[in-house]
Amino acid sequence: MAPKRTLGRHSFFDAPALLAFLEDGLGPGKRDTAERHRRTIQEAAVAAADRGSGTLDLSVAAVPNLPAFARERLPEAFALLTSSVDSVATSGDGTTAKFVVKLQDGHRVESVLMRHDGGRNTLCVSSQVGCKMGCTFCATGTLGELGNLTSGEILEQVAHARRFAAAKGNGETDAVAFRAAEASAAVTNVVFMGMGEPLNNYDAVCASLGLLSDARGFAVAPSRVTVSTVGVVPKMLALARDSPEVRLALSLHAPNQALREKIVPTATAYPLPKIMAALDAYLAAGTRARTRAMIEYCVLGGVNDEEAHAFELGELLRGRDVIVNLIPFNPTDTPMGHTPPTREAVQAMAAVLAGPPFGLRTTVRKEMGQDIAGACGQLALDAGGAKRAGGAGGDLEDLAGSAGNGFARAKTVADKKLKKGSVVNGRVAFASSDVQTNKSRTTSVQTMSSAAPRRATDVTKKK
Fold first, then answer.
1. Is-catalytic flag, 110?
2. Is the peptide bond before 357 cis (omega within 30 degrees of 0)?
3. Could you tell me if 73 and 186 are in contact, meaning their C-beta atoms sit under 8 angstroms apart?
4. Phi, psi of 64 (to 5 degrees)
5. Measured between alpha carbons, how far is 193 from 179 in angstroms, rounded to an integer?
6. How far apart are CA 127 and CA 386, in angstroms?
7. Cβ neighbours of residue 41 under 8 Å, at least 6 residues apart?
8. How confident is the model at residue 197 (pLDDT cuts 50, 70, 90)?
9. What is each CA distance from 212 to 19, 110, 154, 222, in whole angstroms?
């Protein structure tokens, strides 16, 4: 269990705390009334935050029909924002902004806002201070588990990002130029892939999903929200029941139990067969609005990057409606000292997974913000808040089809099994950084063939 944190006022974005306050003031049997007032207050809070306000106006004119006790006592117990943005770093190519967010008890977490083609802006949020899962390639795991975020603190990361992007759009701050000038369009997708294991803070994560997806709140559709987990089986099953339309990303990183325990030490708690059964339950629970799941696989040089690993992974995932996302390792200061894989090794793995007999949709992660320590596995702050590394990955939820463009821009495969310009089973898509030198840059668009150039989405729809 995460250490208990000592907090002062609640965030107006913390739905459970706000509902409890209203129910207590209204008395027994008034839950429906309390829920109605909660939605009204939180709608006003989102609007106030988007305007850049520091407080929430609870006057009769601003929030009508609010009970007198709530109007009087809410400002003492709640604040519009309990956290603040300590610093913002922007990438050299202007696509990525990393926020260091200072919480009210002095802890700091990081979130990353990434701009993608087509006007999609993905925010990677943290759910915990630190993490206890101990993945050997992840900088956050070196901190240990220092505490859980409240649902309000999770959503304040969204509020901060929206304010930041909207202010830039209005020319009020010197920051990265996102296309969306208005806060309501500044964050279109959210991934729980920042600091922490989201399912170890299950209640707060689930509580945040309500206002996050509420049309009167932050209005991010459930199909544009992705929750990542290293494989906390009981909570995977609960998520399939409680939030079946939210997308799941399973951080697998190995095709067998023995290797997985070396990469993810806590894997001993949940054997691979149980994790795969939980994945199947998730896949069975969703509708066509949320079909496939993501399988995240951090490729570590000399550890899990051989073609034999790819064949084993293909067998493990055979027949499942998933997209495999290969993530070339980003250097961090973790004690294990992992090294990035070669580009050829990653290409060979992708070719195996996408080709017969597996035919799995396979992508290579496009890294963004590596020059500001904002790439996958690099997020970490020490206990005092000083930067150690920092991160989030590419547009994973869009790879799962949530924004109409099932894959990022594609790159053709070229290795000893494939001639240049060919496509394995029509399903390999590369949107990559330079794996060997780890330069944060996006490759230019390359056509599937010189005679008939097509976007990756055009190809993958034809099975």
1. yes
2. yes
3. no
4. -70, 160
5. 23
6. 19
7. 12, 18, 56, 58, 63, 66, 70, 74
8. very high
9. 16, 18, 10, 8
List, for residues 94-141, the tens digit of each pLDDT value. Answer: 889 999 999 999 999 999 999 888 888 999 999 999 888 777 777 766
What is the distance between the terminal CA atoms of the chain, rounded to a whole angstrom? Answer: 45
Q: Token pair for residue 229? A: 């987990």
Burial class (CB in 10 A: 0-12, 13-18, 19+), 51: exposed
Confidence category of residue 30, pLDDT binned at 50, 70, 90: very high
**CA distance linking residue 305 with residue 424, whole number of Å:** 19
The DSSP secondary-structure symbol of 151 reads H
Model confidence at 336, pLDDT cuts 50, 70, 90, reads low
- Tell me how far apart the alpha carbons of residues 149 and 153 are, in angstroms, rounded to a whole number: 6
CA distance 226 to 249: 7
Q: For 85-105, give the DSSP string.
A: EEEEEE-TTSSEEEEEEE-TT
Q: Which two tokens stand for residue 267?
A: 């894997």
Q: Is the dihedral of CA 377, 383, 385, 388 positive or negative?
A: negative
CA pair distance 352, 299, nearest whole angstrom: 14
| Cβ(41)–Cβ(18) below 8 Å | yes
Write out the two tokens for 265. Answer: 């030490």
CB 108 within 8 A of CB 100: yes
Please tell me which residue in 23, 110, 145, 197 is annotated as part of the active site.
Answer: 110
Q: How far apart are CA 398 and CA 7, in angstroms?
A: 36
Report the alpha-carbon angle 198-99-81, nearest 5. 80
Amino acid at 52: G
Residue 336 is given by DSSP the state: T
CA distance 320 to 12: 41
Phi, psi (deg, nearest 5) at residue 44: -65, -35
Is 388 strand, coil or helix?
strand
Write down the catalytic residue from 131, 296, 376, 397. 376
Question: C-alpha dihedral over 257, 262, 263, 264, to 10 degrees?
Answer: 70
Q: Show the tokens assigned to 171.
A: 């020319």
Structure tokens of 383? 């206990």
Residue 376 annotated to the active site = yes
Instruction: Please state, in angstroms and rounded to a whole number, the distance separating the CA atoms of residues 205 and 140.
Output: 18
* Residue pair 156/102 in contact by the 8 Å Cβ criterion: no
